[in-house]
Amino acid sequence: MALGPKTAVYIVRRLAQAVPVVIGIVVLNFLLLQLAPGDAATVLAGEAGGAPPEYVAQLRERFGLDRPTHVQLLLYLKNVLSLDLGYSFRNSMPVSTLILGRLGPTLLLMGATLLASVLCGVLLGLLAATAVNTWRDRVISVAAVIAYATPLFWIGLMLILLFSIKLEWLPTTGMEDVVAFNEGWDRVLDIARHLVLPTVTLSLFYMALYTRMMRAAMLDQRGMDYVVTARSKGLSERLITYRHVLRNAVLPVVTMAGVQVGSLLGGSVVVESVFAWPGLGQLAFQSLFARDFNLLLGIFFLSACLVVLVNLAVDLVYLALDPRINVD
Amino acid sequence: MPQSFWRRFIRNRPAAVGLAFLVFVVVVSLGAPLFFAGDPFGIVGKPFLPPFGAYLFGTDSLGRDIAAGIAHGGRTSLMVGLVATIVAVSVGTLLGAFAGFYRGWIDDVLMRFTEFFQTIPTFLFAIVLVAIMSPSRASIVLAIAVISWPPIARLVRGQFMATREREFVQAAICLGMTDAAIIFRQILPNVLSPIIVAGSLMVATAILIEAALAFLGLGDPNAMSWGFMIGAGRSFLRDAWWLCAIPGIAILLTVLSINLVGEGVNDALNPRLRTL
Amino acid sequence: MSTPPAAANGRGGPPAATNGVDEPALLAVQGLNVALPAWADRERAVSDLSIQLLPNQIVCVVGESGSGKSVLARAIMGLLPAPHVHVTGGRVLFDGEDLLQATPGRMRAVRGARIAMIFQEPMTALNPLMTIGWQIEEMVEIHLVLGARERRARILALLEEVRLADPERILRAYPHEISGGQRQRAMIAMALILEPAILIADEPTTALDVTTQAQILALIKELQRKHQTGVLFITHDFGVVAEIADHVAVMRHGVLVEIGTAAQVLNAPQHEYTRSLIAAVPALAPRAKRVTDAAPVVLEVRGMTKTFASGAGWFSRARRSVPAVKAVELALRRGHTLGLVGESGSGKSTLARCIIRLIEPDAGSVRLAGIDLSALTRRELRPHRKHIQMVFQDPFGSLNPRMTVVQLIAQGPITHGVAVPEALARARELLQLVRLDPAAADRFPHEFSGGQRQRIGIARALALKPLLLVADEPVSALDVSVQAQVLQLLADIRDRLELTMLFITHDLRVAAQVCDEIAVMRQGEIVETGPTAAVFADPQHPYTRELLAAVPGRNWVPPRF
Question: I need a labelling partner for C71 at 20 to 30 A (CA). Which of A192, B181, C224, C322 fits?
Fold first, then answer.
């Protein structure tokens, strides 16, 4: 597939189609959060140690929480459409500043996980399928079944126990050693060392899933007619696997990876909590308990946009892999 | 058919082992009040007793019996996993069936919904739902069901769309059958096996979600749960690893056995796949 | 190698020269045995089979499904699905070498370069993700050391030879971007590019439309003569055999029952089984007119139109409209059988489904015995549905696998309010009418053969005593001998019950045997209609003439015994 004007039109159309979905997510979450007991004013007042009702009312008025719900919603939507995500009264900072500060770490973790899980999954699936019913296949398959059943947060803790506490190979938590004031390559290396365990933790489940899918897809494709054709042409089994079967078998894995971006972002909430990774998931969690709904809505909005973009990127990869998909 | 199903299922060794372990988990969980009478939150001895001493799995930071917690926590996990799955599968099957059979606007709405749930980070959404409804078994079940039904609906929709084009369904329309009869008596029995398989795997996923919620402190405060135990023990990871390790292994083995059973059911329902 | 025989010898047996005993065989299969896995219904897929292929000769291996003819082809190529199906004895001599003893490496050198193969379904036989050019080039690249330019010149020359227009475009195209006929031409080009001594063709025209089939058969024959290739041609269709074979081998249950020149086997078969197969081939001669025009009109279709809106791709929302049926008019009198003939995509099935309202038409009306069905809503239509019943094509898909035979047949009357015991009793009677053992009533569909399932489908349709029976390709999934029985059954029942029938088929032989009138469809329109005999004798529309000319073996009159 060439990156021609057709592809550009396709990208624009896909983005346009995503707008109602993203707005839907914002509206639904807005309405849901209205149902939550308490708001930022009560939480602030509570922290101030049982402030008088007049103070709470005053806070509500300042935050605009005293107006009817639909007015608040319309106001909020209007702001979102002009990319103004509002103000976090809890943190005394604009929501966008807060979120953008956390976007980098989240993107780093997500990107590393997506890459690691797809690459390792495809490789392991290939290794298993090319040695079907041998010890290599069995070891990979059993490992995948076990990894598929492992709770993320628990394996994260166990990895910390083993690699950080017992072996002291890798740092326990955080994204970098702040007090070391690393710069340049030292800093990159430091962040990479911090990235290993969270990425392994978050990848494990998806890697297991893609391994199993890849193995199944390889075996499936092996039975296709075009493989018989390739054999009748005199190709060796090795060439058949790498030239013909592999590419066909990767397609379902790529589709699956696209579908799961949203679930991956959700999973990162847990992993960020285990590793104190300063990403969006942790921020979301904190904002929920502080009833900082502006911030929480902003995070939902941004993560929805993120999923849309990553989905689109995955679909473009798919488009490049499968000529049967037509962009017009 | 059912007899040969059982024979095929039991011949599959991993599935048989999984089923045996699952039966064990169910017995221990249901029998928890008998085996471990009293409140699992109650203090029984000194804190941080290591496992395989006075207490099978030792005690936690407050001196609570970990084995009792595991048994009682199993009830929570299994109950939440099962009920959430039943709700999600029922809703998903019904909506998927209508969308796949009628297409049109109901299908469009359903597809927007599944798109919605693919775009939103589902686990974060579940957290918000539980927080809003305040954590309880009911709110956890509901939250898990809400985020779990769309994949089932998608699956059932696809099955219905494919089966609807099969000639025996066309024949049923020609015979003048009502839509309800066609949906529930002609098509549904023919697409039941993938639904059963997806449902059994969903129990495992639901247990994992429940554990993660409880780990983050969003569990039912009145019910012991495996996720809660890990969350409570994580501060003592350095000195008392078993506080976290044991409940985690319980989750792992339970989920693993459910997955093995689910796959065994799949293989036994589709014997053709195994003749590869 | 001897000089190629005169091309004038189109049909009716090869010249004696190519069959001379003195000429060495190109390929000799001797005493081949192929074992089936333990769970199969018989022990051997091929037993003790010997067959010879001479240079510049087309040998057709003909047989019904399960005869072992495809297994034979794959055994020669060393492509059996090991370990379940494997050779247990015999020799496959090619150039004096036993291919069954060849090393895997040696077999890879033979495959493609010396013995090439083409398949039934070129769409699935080609890798969907690679261009046609790449896939042909791969064949050259793995066997020969040639520069890129030389390879390309060779490929382009061959694409011209298989008459692919615009070869440059075809080279760049992916399999899904070209038509079925073009794909099969590309497959042939790929198979012949290394000038193999032998071409094995496994049902290469079965998935194609009849006019495309005629072209591909002519092409295979022409290239075979030109390159003096030996061709082993696997087919189930005696028409195709008559069209292309020099020699014919008839197989049944893995055993070779008869072998001889095309003229011998087609016109004077010796073996009982060959005779029964040939007797089952419908003659292309239309049946005598059976009905009068005085009968009242049962079905009247006016201005039937259906356009499909189709999404162009998975990700795309752009709608393209595909007109499937365009303002079709039809009238059918009581007791008549109207044949709706046409190639795939002609709209014949869509038209039938619009009449029966399995598809909602965009415009047009259907009157059945005076009632305007098109004015009714889906709900209002339900009680009237019993008047039109349908027999479907796929004997495996048309019966709900979870219901017993008697339930399947009785469900229609029960839906329309007949008491259950009465409906079940009547269902058992119907089983006898369609000549099935009433003892089979409580079994499930998977326990029956394809022909028996079609009988169950017919009984289900008849259970409602319909005014009109729509049969959509009811025999095209069946083997020829079973096909003859089902057609006979349909004809008998029609005569006995004075049924009116709309019979959809792509097979003009079947249409000639069954239909009183035919309507020829093409691209959603009826281009010609009239009494079968008249249309066959003097087709008016050029497309009808083209269809008739394309019927394989049209000049061969199957002998009757």
Answer: C224
A319 to chain C, closest Cα gap in Å: 10
Per the prediction, chain B carries an average pLDDT of: 85
Per-domain boundaries in chain B? 2-36+55-273
- Distance of residue C400 Cα from the nearest chain A Cα, in angstroms: 27
Mutation test of the interface with chain B: which of C384, C411, C416, choosing the one with the most B Cβ atoms within 10 A? C411
- The pLDDT tens digits for C292-338 are 777 889 999 999 999 987 644 444 444 567 788 999 999 999 989 99
3-class DSSP assignment, residue C316 = coil
The pLDDT of residue C529 is 93
Residue C464 with chain B: CB contacts under 8 Å:
175
pLDDT given for residue A321 in this prediction = 86
> How close are the terminal C-alpha atoms of chain B, in Å?
21
Provide long-range contacts, Cβ within 8 A and 24+ apart, for A27-34. A27/A73, A27/A77, A28/B116, A29/A296, A29/A297, A29/A300, A29/B125, A29/B128, A30/A72, A30/A73, A30/A76, A30/A293, A30/A297, A31/A69, A31/A73, A32/B128, A32/B129, A32/B132, A33/A293, A33/A296, A33/A297, A33/B128, A33/B132, A34/A69
Strand partners, B65: B59
pLDDT digits (tens, 9 = 90+) for A43-71: 777 666 666 777 777 777 777 777 777 78
Label residue C481 exposed, middle or buried (CB < 10 Å: 0-12, 13-18, 19+). middle
**Cis peptide bond N-terminal to C14, omega within 30:** no
Interface check C97 vs A, CB under 8 A: no
Segment C439-462 shows an average pLDDT of 91
Q: Which residues of B touch A219 (CB under 8 A)?
A: 276
Chain C residues touching residue B168 (CB < 8 angstroms)? 397-401
**What is the CATH code for B2-36+55-273?**
1.10.3720.10
Q: Worst-scoring range by mean pLDDT, A63-72, B68-77, C406-415, C544-553?
A: A63-72
C350 pLDDT exceeds 70? yes
The candidate with the shortest Cα–Cα distance to B137, out of B92, B177, B84, is B84
Q: Which of A17, A103, A153 to mutate to test the interface with B (most CBs of B within 10 A)?
A: A153
Report d(CA C110, CA C421) in Å as an integer: 66
Fill in the DSSP letter of residue A176.
Answer: S
**Cβ atoms of residues B160 and B101 within 8 Å:** yes
Which parts of C236-296 are beta strand (E)?
A: 247-252, 255-261
Banded model confidence at residue C100, pLDDT cuts 50, 70, 90: very high
Tell me which residues of chain A have a pLDDT lower than 50.
Answer: 1-2
Of chain C, the percentage scoring pLDDT greater than 70 comes to: 93
Report the distance separating Cα A308 and Cα A54, nearest Å: 44
Q: Which of C110, C119, C129 sits opposite A225 (nearest CB)?
A: C119
DSSP secondary structure, C220-231, as one string: HHHHHHHHT-EE
